[in-house]
Design goal:
Largest sheet: none
InterPro entries: Glcn_transporter (IPR003474)
Helix content: over 70%
Protein name: Gluconate transporter
Order of helices and strands: HHHHHHHHHHHHHHHHHHH
Main location: membrane
Number of strands: 0
Membrane topology: Multi-pass membrane protein
Family: Belongs to the GntP permease family.
Shape: globular
Length: about 425
C-alpha cells in the first residue's frame, strides 16, 4: 500500500507540472503534504516534516548555488566567456573549430548556470558559423552537449550540488569523477555524433546573433581563464590536500575552510569581481545589478530544490524509504542503474532534469548506505538519467528548436538524440568507474 502511495504521488507530481501547468515548487509542496498524510504522518506533524526537509536541503546549498549563479553571470556579461571562445578557436585553427568550441563549452559551462550558458554560447556559435561558413548544428551541438553534461554532472550546478548534499557525497570527488566521465561522454555525444548531422541545414535567425564585444574591451586571456576556472582549481586542491598528510592542525583547519564549497564560491566571486569587473571599469553598482539578475535567473530552481527536500523528508519520516530500499533489493537491479532508471522515467514524463534528479534521489537515498553504494557515483548516475530524451515537454527542446530554426523532426534527430546519448554514455562511465573506485 505504501509503495502505491509513492507511485501515485509521483504520477500526481507529473500531472500537476506537465498537464495542469502548476509551478513545480507548489506541485512538490502539495504532493509532499498529500503523501505525508496518506503515509500516516499526522496532520500536526506533516507540515513540520515539510519545513525540516526544506530547511535541511537549502541550508548549505543556497550559498553555493547563489554565488555560482552570480559568478556565471559575471563571466558572461564581462566578455570573459567570449574571450575564452575566441582564444580557443584561434589556437585550434579553422579545421578544429568544432573541438575548440567543445573545450570552450566545458570551460564556460562549469561556472555558468545552464540557462545563462545556452543564451550566451548560441550567439557565439552563430557568429562563428557565419564567419567561417560552417553548419551551425555541426559546430553548435557539440558545444551544447558540453553545457548539458556540466549542468547534469558537475558541481557547482544546482542539481548535482543538491544531490551531493542528499547523498552526503564529497563535492571535490564528485567533480573529479564527473569530469572523468564527462570528457568521453561529450566527445561521443558531441563532435562524433554531430558528424552524422551534416545533412541538417539550420537557418538560425539573425535576431539571435548578439553583437560581439569589441576585442579591446574584453578581459585578458589569463584573467578570463583564471576567473572562470578558479572554483575548479580550489575544489581540486581541496580534494588533493588530504593526500599531502600535513600534520599541522591549524593549517589543516584553514585548508578545510578555504576548500569548503561555500568558501570556494565566495573566494571565486570576490576574485572575479575585481579581475573581470572593477579592473575592467565596471562600477560596484553595475556589478550588484548583474548579481541581482543572476539571482532572478535561479529563483525558481532554488524553490524546486527546496520542494524536493520536503518530499524527501516526508519519505524519511514516514519510514517508507526503508521499504523502498528493500523493494529495490528484491528487484535485483543494481542501485546505480535503478537511480538512473528512476531519474530517466521522471525526466521523460516531466521534462525537468532538476525535478527528475531530485525526486529520484529522494526515492533511492536509503540504498546508498544500506548497500554501500559510492555516493559520488550515485550523484553522477542520477545526473545522467535526468538528462535522457529531452522532448516537447522540456523548455530546452524548444530553446534549441527556435534558436536554430529547425523542424520538430530535425530537433529530435539532433537535440533529443544528443541528450539521450549523454545519458547513456554517462551511465556507462559510472558503471566502469564503479569497477575501480
Amino acid at each position: 500500500m505504501s509503495l502505491l502511495v509513492i507511485f501515485l504521488a509521483i504520477v500526481a507530481l507529473v500531472l500537476l507540472v506537465s498537464w495542469a501547468k502548476v509551478n513545480p515548487f507548489l506541485a512538490f509542496l502539495i504532493v509532499s503534504i498529500g503523501a505525508g498524510l496518506a503515509l500516516g504522518i499526522g496532520p500536526d506533524k506533516v507540515i513540520a516534516s515539510v519545513q525540516k526537509g526544506m530547511g535541511d536541503t537549502m541550508g548549505s546549498l543556497i550559498i553555493i548555488i547563489c554565488l555560482g549563479a552570480m559568478l556565471g553571470k559575471l563571466i558572461a556579461t564581462s566578455g570573459a566567456a567570449q574571450k575564452i571562445a575566441d582564444v580557443l578557436v584561434q589556437a585550434g585553427g579553422e579545421k578544429n573549430i568544432q573541438w575548440a568550441l567543445v573545450v570552450a563549452g566545458i570551460i564556460v559551462g562549469i561556472p555558468l548556470f545552464y540557462g545563462i550558458g545556452f543564451v550566451l554560447v548560441v550567439p557565439l556559435i552563430f557568429s562563428i558559423a557565419y564567419k567561417y561558413k560552417i553548419n551551425a548544428v555541426y559546430i553548435g551541438l557539440p558545444m551544447l552537449s558540453a553545457l548539458s553534461v556540466t549542468h547534469g554532472f558537475l558541481p557547482p550546478h544546482p542539481s548535482p550540488t543538491a544531490l551531493v548534499k542528499q547523498f552526503h557525497a564529497d563535492l571535490g570527488l564528485t567533480f573529479i569523477y564527473g569530469f572523468i566521465i564527462a570528457v568521453p561522454t561529450i566527445i561521443l555525444a558531441g563532435p562524433l555524433y554531430a558528424r552524422t548531422l551534416k545533412h541538417i541545414n539550420p537557418q538560425p535567425l539573425k535576431t539571435f546573433r548578439a553583437p560581439q564585444i569589441p576585442q579591446n574591451q574584453l578581459p585578458g586571456t589569463f584573467i578570463s581563464f583564471f576567473s572562470a576556472l578558479l572554483p575548479v582549481i580550489l575544489l581540486m586542491a581541496g580534494t588533493a590536500y588530504p593526500f599531502l598528510h600535513v600534520q599541522n592542525a591549524m593549517l589543516n583547519r584553514v585548508a578545510a575552510f578555504i576548500t569548503d564549497g561555500s568558501t570556494v564560491m565566495l573566494i571565486s566571486l570576490i576574485t572575479a569581481t575585481f579581475t573581470v569587473g572593477i579592473s575592467m571599469g565596471k562600477k560596484m553598482a553595475d556589478l550588484s545589478a548583474i548579481y541581482v539578475d543572476a539571482l532572478k535567473d535561479i529563483a525558481v530552481i532554488l524553490l524546486i530544490i527546496a520542494g524536493s527536500g520536503a518530499f524527501k523528508q516526508v519519505l524519511v519520516d514516514s519510514g517508507i524509504s526503508t521499504q523502498i530500499a528493500g523493494q529495490i533489493q528484491s528487484l535485483n537491479i543494481p542501485p546505480l542503474i535503478m537511480g538512473w532508471l528512476i531519474a530517466a522515467i521522471i525526466r521523460i514524463s516531466l521534462g525537468s532534469s532538476t525535478v527528475a534528479g531530485l525526486t529520484a534521489a529522494a526515492i533511492v537515498a536509503p540504498t546508498v548506505i544500506q548497500y554501500h553504494v559510492n555516493p559520488n557515483l550515485m550523484v553522477l548516475s542520477i545526473g545522467a538519467g535526468s538528462l535522457v530524451l529531452s522532448h516537447v515537454n522540456d523548455s530546452g527542446f524548444w530553446l534549441y528548436k527556435e534558436y536554430f530554426n529547425l523542424s520538430i523532426k530535425d530537433t529530435f534527430r539532433s537535440w533529443s538524440a544528443m541528450e539521450t546519448l549523454v545519458a547513456i554514455c554517462g551511465l556507462g562511465g559510472v558503471l566502469l568507474l564503479n569497477l575501480v573506485v
